Known about the structure:
Blueprint: E1 6-11, E2 14-19, H1 22-39, E3 44-47, H2 54-65, E4 75-78, E5 80-82, H3 93-100, E6 112-113, H4 122-135, E7 141-144, E8 166-169, H5 172-178, E9 191-194, H6 197-201, E10 205-210, H7 216-224, E11 242-247
Parallel strand pairs: 2-11, 3-4, 3-7, 4-6, 7-10, 10-11
Antiparallel strand pairs: 1-2, 5-9, 8-9
Helix pairs in contact: 1-2
Bound molecules: 2-amino-2-deoxy-6-O-phosphono-alpha-D-glucopyranose.
Amino acid sequence: xxxxxxxxxxxxxxxxxxxxxxxxxxxxxxxHLITTVRRNPKSVLGLATGQTPRxxxxxxxxxxxxxxxxxxxxxxxxxxxYCGLAASHPDAFAAFMxxxxxxxxxxxxAKLNLIDGAAADLAAEAARYATLLHKSGGxxxxxxxxxxxxxxGFNEPGSAPDSHVRIxxxxxxxxxxNQPGLVELRSVPSQAITLGIADILNAREIIMLAxxxxxxTAVRRSLREKPSTDCPxxxxxxxxxxxxxxxxxxxxxxx
Length: 255
Ligand code: GLP
């Protein structure tokens, strides 16, 4: 079944597929990840949070429940975490991952790498995570979502292409964009720890999933304008193996 409206090569290493709906795009991303894990059960996956990947994770769980895939030997690294939140806090990305994916399939807790947002020494925590990532041999497939301001992970506009795991201040746009997704907190924490742009670019393969009209401008800036730190996702165009999965709304400003 080919649900894509069109599939194009933006450049040598960059594929773009536009799907009729957000669910179609998410299902295609889930298929991509399932194929990856079936080919290499020991894959190292880089995972994202946010509303966009929820359908992807549901499809992965469904595939597991149907006996189509096992995640037993998969290792994961999450992109980011809010500062100040313990893994058990409902608004922590660690708790999101447990609710949406890790707690619903056969992941091995020992292979799930998460940032401790409640660590007493956050700089040391960032350094610990960077070391873990390095020791793992790197990410095979990195799943990304897109901020309305073009951020990836929590690499806000201005983030350097050679940035690594670090503590960042969140922009006003991100604070308000993420507010509706909060479970318990009334406002979004002002800082986070995130993988850097260089860490993301080091992944052997990148999947970007962007859906909905709110992402259309960031998609156009990322794919049609000159790469610039003003739009962090535009820096992905230098990657040798990236696939953009969009729905028609997110692709609407591409022209
Ligand atoms: C957060 C995450 C990003 C995510 C972005 C978009 O800021 N740190 O990794 O891509 O939100 O989220 P959503 O999918 O909810 O639009």
